[in-house]
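pasting for ref
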Amino acid sequence: MPLPPSSAERTRMHVRSVQLEGYKRVDGHWDIEARLTDVKDHDYPLSSKTIVRGDAVHDMWVRVTIDHKMNVVDAVACTDAMPYEGSCDGIHPAYSKLVGLNLFHGFRKAVKELFGSTRGCSHITELVMFLPTAALQTFASDVRDNEDSEHKPYQLDKCHALDSHSDAVRRYYPRWYRSLKTG
């Protein structure tokens, strides 16, 4: 269901697009690639230059390579379009600090500590925050979501719908359903 129409006439000024892609590699690792682009619907004058309508203000990429336990084993960032050439693109090597982090254990907190404020590019750092859920969706393509095993399915207790006490878990994952005891 789409959003309802706006209650006021309006003019679009900006489009941000975020694209994430997950790849299974032949070496047993996984690549998660993310791209962020910002485009204006008008000429956009900045102190450094004027960005022509339709050209990217930002076009930034990040790729992490992860193992089957969601540990980052390689990371790279690059920028194809930026407002301050020679400055914005100088931070790319810092993103190699993602290596060694685990996407599911303390990742977002560590990213904020490593790249918050002026320690990183705000746009690339924002993009990096999408990586855990993109990795989860990538792995989901390779694992049956209701496979009966000794381990609780990875997606349970990660969102409202799949809370261990929910009707959805009771219906689709009965082994892992936990009723709320009232008393």
